[in-house]
């Protein structure tokens, strides 16, 4: 094991920038700024469940951190620190070096200090815990959506699902879109700048990790509201171009996970602000529906204008029926 | 998976006491007190590596948290919050209920809020990340030991190693000691009160998780000092009574891990303070050696009074040769 410790130390010790005591002691020491709350999240990535065991380790390093950064972004917080616990089947230096490259590329991209961790031997399992800062009271939770608020989503969710379908041989993507969809799958871009800009504007927010309609249910549940999603407003153009299959495109957009786009509620009288933000960040923001006072009822308005109820687990059925 | 989510929610959602936002959103929100640093540590427990897959889940729940609490104690910090990521092979309600009992028993014992987590399906792996508070500048690190400081250890380290040897059929323990040693192995008692009391008294500290001499090397390395350990001063009485084998007793005490006793340095002119503390906490504290100015040199003074050098990995050799 000592060679493994040495490898981990060599590849995972970088000078921290805003940390009192980092890797090497019983615990790391940090201080959030005055008036700040800490936002804390953990997301475990398991070989065979979340990724193929032979996944490119550099991409995996990026994604392991990026999916956690996304949770912090979804609170409107700024990512600051991370600890990484890793269970590795072997001390494979090339693998560790590539993983570290991807992991620290994501640290650099978002100015995150890696402040500690733990390594052990066993089935491949990566478990980062991430810390963000947000001014006390400014975090955007899942529980603040109000009837009448608009429902927005960033980017073009569903590209990661098409990338995965491509890897599984279930779909043929055009070459240009194949690269785009695989990048969405392997190198998701957490929407940190958007999350920060939505403080004071969004009333509720989360990141889409399991699928748009399924994740939307979490907002409905915690905000005790309902929602209507307008099928005609879904950002399907890119997905349609990529796979040429309208049914698959709708299913990828509404049920596909792993894109880490932000889904948020905002007051209807703030539409201009959201549009300005979209322009400023050069990031498409799509108004895809609105919230209602029918607690936890999720409805889809089809192209025919009729409302279809989507049951709690109904986004799968919806996908099949579309 | 939804039944698993429901199970986790049922057994792992408890009202927090000092947390702004706990389980259920993208991230938890906490605020350390004014003038406080946060001490953060993560320790992953993997089936087959750290425990037998058929280990009693209630004990495992306790230990999963306790070994992390111990890292916070070893900084002289007060444990406050924990997030738990868990990879489980199946949604076994009886197992989850028992694990949660043990985990929350440890939360209660140390007034810790469980504020979030993640559950996934796969090989059994438990990954808590724990947060403690300590007044800024008051943490006891591994790097402050000075030549001339005394070397102290709490309790009777080695009992957990004897318990493990008993389970493996390598040793026969007397019935009374068998229960004691198995309790040390399965229900370690992190020394939180001791760690807090040693602020301003200990100059360096860590918890013994891998073995006394091996872990002592971490203090020598970070403090750039040497140490002499006096074999005659080691707390061997209980171990000898338990197993009746002097060689095994010495090896368990110096190389056995998993007891989570605290190993610390303190100035020689503070011996009375340490003795008073021992009496106040009703916890034996043993002065087992002293620090020297020979950087990273670890020596053992045998019963014959002669000094033997212990190499970096030498505690194994020592154990065999004693």
Automatic annotation (TrEMBL), chains A, B:
User: Which GO MF terms does the UniProt record name?
Assistant: ATP binding; magnesium ion binding; thiamine-phosphate kinase activity
Positions contributing to ATP binding: 117-118, 142, 209
Question: What InterPro entries is this protein classified in?
Answer: PurM-like_C_dom (IPR010918), PurM-like_C_sf (IPR036676), PurM-like_N (IPR016188), PurM-like_N_sf (IPR036921), ThiL-like (IPR006283)
Q: Name one GO biological process term.
A: thiamine diphosphate biosynthetic process
Cite the EC number: 2.7.4.16
Q: Which CDD domains match?
A: ThiL
The record lists Mg(2+) 1 as bound by 42-43, 118
Q: Where is the chain membrane-spanning?
A: none
Give the binding site residues for substrate: 50, 258, 315
Give every PurM-like C-terminal domain span.
146-295
**Residues making up the signal peptide according to the UniProt record:** none
Instruction: From the UniProt record, give the pathway where this protein acts.
Output: Cofactor biosynthesis; thiamine diphosphate biosynthesis; thiamine diphosphate from thiamine phosphate: step 1/1
- Of which family is this protein a member? Belongs to the thiamine-monophosphate kinase family.
Miscellaneous section = Reaction mechanism of ThiL seems to utilize a direct, inline transfer of the gamma-phosphate of ATP to TMP rather than a phosphorylated enzyme intermediate.
HAMAP family documented for this protein: TMP_kinase
Q: Please report the name of this protein according to its UniProt entry.
A: Thiamine-monophosphate kinase
Origin organism is Zoogloea oleivorans
């Amino acid at each position: 094991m000592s060679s493994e410790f040495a490898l981990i130390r060599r590849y995972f010790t970088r000078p921290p920038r805003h940390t009192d005591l980092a890797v090497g002691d019983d615990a790391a020491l940090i201080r959030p700024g005055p008036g700040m709350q800490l936002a804390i999240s953990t997301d475990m990535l398991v070989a065979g469940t979340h990724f193929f065991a032979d996944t490119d380790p550099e991409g995996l390093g990026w994604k392991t951190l990026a999916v956690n950064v996304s949770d912090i972004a979804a609170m409107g917080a700024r990512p600051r620190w991370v600890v990484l616990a890793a269970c590795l089947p072997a001390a494979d230096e090339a693998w560790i070096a590539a993983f570290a490259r991807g992991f620290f590329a994501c640290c650099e991209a978002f100015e995150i200090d890696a402040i500690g961790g733990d390594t052990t031997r066993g089935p491949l399992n990566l478990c980062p815990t991430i810390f963000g800062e947000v001014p006390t009271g400014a975090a955007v939770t899942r529980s603040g959506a109000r009837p009448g608020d608009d429902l927005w989503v960033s980017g073009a969710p569903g590209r990661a699902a098409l990338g995965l379908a491509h890897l599984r041989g279930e779909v043929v993507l055009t070459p240009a879109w194949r690269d785009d969809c695989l990048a969405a799958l392997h190198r998701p871009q957490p929407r940190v700048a958007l999350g920060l800009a939505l403080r004071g504007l969004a009333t509720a927010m989360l990141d889409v990790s399991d699928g748009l309609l399924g994740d939307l249910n979490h907002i409905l549940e915690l905000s005790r509201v309902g929602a209507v999603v307008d099928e005609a407003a879904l950002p399907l153009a890119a997905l349609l171009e990529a796979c040429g299959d309208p049914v698959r495109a709708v299913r990828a957009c509404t049920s596909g996970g792993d894109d880490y786009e932000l889904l948020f509620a905002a007051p209807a009288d703030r539409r201009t602000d959201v549009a300005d933000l979209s322009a400023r960040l050069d990031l498409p923001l799509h108004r895809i529906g609105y919230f209602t006072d029918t607690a936890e009822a999720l409805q889809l308005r089809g192209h025919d204008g009729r409302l279809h109820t989507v049951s709690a687990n109904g986004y799968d059925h919806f996908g099949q029926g579309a």
